[in-house]
Specification:
The protein is of the alpha+beta class and 102 residues long. The protein has helices at 64-71, 75-85, and strands spanning 4-8, 20-26, 36-41, 44-58, 93-101. It has one domain: Archaeosine Trna-guanine Transglycosylase, Chain: A, domain 4 (Roll), CATH 2.30.130. It contains 2 helices and 5 strands; from the N terminus they run E-E-E-E-H-H-E.
Length: 102
């Protein structure tokens, strides 16, 4: 297994069942296009994926389209959820990771 991993509490929108899916995470230098990542949901290994694109933005630039695709909820609901996952969100940049299952 690779050194990088993404852990999901839920399979929002059943996105982890798809060949291509997104994840919105606080910006970190470890996220690089081409990086292979182990995907877990509720602590169970699901599959490997590779990052094929990264968009970086502050939360206030998140749009409904991306929020619905990522989590099946509007941007305000998703921002509220992200703030529960990451309480330090004020002023942070976020990576919208586009991943492809390996």
């Amino acid at each position: 297994m690779s050194n990088l991993s993404l852990h999901f509490a839920q399979n929002f929108n059943h996105k982890l069942d798809c060949e291509y899916f997104t994840s919105i995470r606080p910006q970190r230098d470890i996220y690089q296009v081409g990086a292979e990542i182990d995907i877990y949901c509720q602590e169970h290994f699901l599959k490997k994926a590779v990052i094929i694109n990264i968009q970086t933005l502050p939360l206030f630039e998140l749009d409904d389209w991306t929020a619905f695709l990522d989590a099946g909820m509007n941007k305000d609901e998703l921002i509220t959820l992200l703030k529960t996952f990451y309480p330090e969100t004020e002023g942070l940049l976020f990576n919208v990771l586009l991943l492809k299952s390996c």
